[in-house]
Write a structure and sequence with these properties.
Blueprint lengths: L2 H7 L10 E5 L5 H7 L6 E5 L3 H10 L6 E4 L2 E2 L4 E8 L12 H6 L6 E9 L1 H5 L8 E5 L5 H6 L10 E7 L10 H10 L3 E10 L6 E9 L1 H8 L2
Parallel strand pairs: 1-2, 1-7, 2-3, 4-6, 7-8
Antiparallel strand pairs: 5-6, 8-10, 9-10
């Protein structure tokens, strides 16, 4: 993507004094590379369970002391879990891929199982001192609710969440947008819009998007109130 489009997509973040960014589902560092230029003085905590993707992520930022990388999945439990690894790494999930996803994106349908470690965000940050203001990004292919439910205490400190949400079932037993919306409303977040929306390659019907949720103090800054 051209740099001017990247800058346009994240322009609204420049108004926020973000000091800590938690990147859940970092893959090879795509999100991290884009927002690092906006917040070069922030501390970044990036989580990626797939070993090959994690190695590429860490290699890019190995000399950057502000980027902290972790090689495990996140959810509402602590232990090991079977991850459904896709031939397209960004489509991998701890949930099984639904038929619709396979039909719409056949290049992702070559799957095999991979055992990975899984932890809770609350346990990781329980005794860690992190600076306000905090941005939490979640992109874990249908398992976003599990990450949120494993971060109940952390959510009290988080100021803005950018999370992938689906309008239809792409992974088995995944929560849809309304479920994520209601869950985050319960934790005092307000939905303010979609950052980017993706559509079906066959019908152009909306499939999923990156939703933005903020606490009131961030909403006041965003809208200048």
């Amino acid at each position: 993507m051209p740099q001017y489009l990247i800058d346009k997509r994240w322009k609204f973040l420049r108004h926020l004094n973000i000091r800590t960014i938690i990147d859940v589902g970092a893959n090879e560092g795509q999100f991290l590379k884009e927002v690092y230029n906006i917040f070069p003085n922030a501390e970044f905590y990036s989580f990626e369970p797939l070993r090959d993707c994690f190695d590429k992520l860490t290699d890019q930022f190995k000399n950057n002391r502000r980027v902290h990388t972790f090689n495990f999945a996140l959810g509402e439990e602590d232990g090991e879990i079977i991850l459904s690894r896709s031939s397209a790494s960004e489509s991998s999930s701890i949930l099984k891929m639904a038929r619709l996803h396979k039909n719409l994106f056949p290049h992702t349908a070559n799957l095999f199982e991979e055992k990975v470690k899984i932890k809770r965000l609350d346990d990781i940050f329980e005794n860690m001192i992190i600076q306000d203001f905090i941005l939490l990004k979640i992109d874990v292919q249908g398992a976003e609710e599990k990450v949120i439910r494993g971060a109940i205490q952390l959510l009290k400190k988080v100021n803005i969440i950018i999370t992938e949400v689906s309008y239809t079932t792409l992974y088995e037993d995944q929560p849809l947008f309304k479920d994520i919306l209601n869950l985050l409303l319960d934790h005092k977040f307000t939905f303010v819009g979609m950052l980017e929306q993706f559509v079906s390659p066959s019908t152009s019907a909306p499939l999923f998007a990156d939703a933005i949720f903020v606490k009131k103090e961030m909403q006041d800054v965003l809208y200048g109130s």
